[in-house]
# Entry
Amino acid sequence: MRTQIGIVGAGPAGLVLAHLLHLHGIESVVVETRSRKYIEERVRAGLLEQGTVNLLIETGVGERLQRECLTHHGIELRFNRRGHRIDFDALTGGKTVTIYAQHEVIKDLVAARLAAGLPLILEAENVSVHGLNSASPSIRFRMAGEEQEVHCDYIAGCDGFHGICRPSIPDGVLTEFERVYPFGWLGILAKAPPSSEELVYNYHERGFALLTMRTREISRLYLQVPHDEDINSWPDDRIWSELRLRTAVDGDWKLNEGPIFQKNIAPMRSYVVEPMQYGKMFLAGDAAHIVPPTGAKGLNLAVADVRIMAQAFAEFYATGKTHLLENYSQKCLRRVWKAQRFSWWMTSMLHRFDTDNAFDQRRQLAELDYVTSSRAAMTTLAENYVGLPWD
Ligand code: FAD
Ligand code: DHB
# Structure
């Protein structure tokens, strides 16, 4: 097999890239280890920045999104039993964020790719990349017991944090920057209407809690738990009673409860590699960087990376110039580090740390008080939350 761009991974980064390349008239083959059912059902992100939403709509894959999404004009920060609204409309000149599940985005992108009759290889085994410094790098894999090879001009490593692309780069090339947090998020999906119109970020002495949603009937709820927590020690009753404690507020608000139908624990990490490229391979999304989920930047960063990558490939195929490809990392990393800073800041402000002492708690509460009372501070939060400008 031969193509122009070989894409490893059919997550948001790989599928958005394949879609953008197609619109530029550039051929690609996507190689993914999982099945269609698996990638279309994997529960992850849910909050899309306006730039991400605009890109999906403008490139023709936002029709169902527009029909089914929920648009939000603000969030609530809740602490000391009081809620404080951050008003995105007023603070960002009318920008919004959108709730639409990541796996729904995946379904729309897979449907578009298959409808266009373009190659999406699923359930590939033993995927590996070769010749990263050669004129024709390749992706090898096993399919139905047979070895296959896709030769290409360039490889896009979109295979997530645990993929094979980043580790295929020789030792000594990449510099890693990392922070691991002493906690994770226990996330649930419940058949219960959202308890508030907008997302509620709760700071509490027992730990952080987030109230978000997927639809008008389904709530998505997260609890801070220790990083090595066993999910089996969280029966449904315990989850609801902990959520009730951490979200309690003065007044007549009440947490809506219902049957829990999905439960998992995700670890929290900040991670970046520099550069995000080596020879003929370019990394995008979680393959190159991870943010802790507070502030919902991961998927949005993945889309921002591949938008820049697609522009660079388009310039190369139109003019033969490699200038944008050479500057790919540099351009992405400016945005990546700002999202890292924001995600780290939101995480640090809202979670309880093992090392917490009374001073740190008072400092966190002072910060929350400042962020919810100073217009300058609220604007900082709001402009980062809705998404910094693309360019
Ligand atoms: P992935 O989604 O990880 O996709 C990589 C793909 O590559 C996968 O399909 C994988 O199966 C495949 N793959 C792996 N190895 C190989 C291989 N060897 N060969 C071929 N294919 C391979 N982000 C937000 O923006 N907003 C949110 O609200 C948000 N909430 C989150 C909540 C939670 C609980 C979690 C865990 C994450 C959240 N994120 C959020 C982060 C977001 O889900 C990720 O940043 C996003 O999935 C990254 O996309 P990606 O395409 O880079 O990687
Ligand atoms: C969601 C996840 C987040 O990390 C966040 O900050 C907001 C929303 C979500 O899954 O809906």
Observations:
- The longest strand covers residues 175-190.
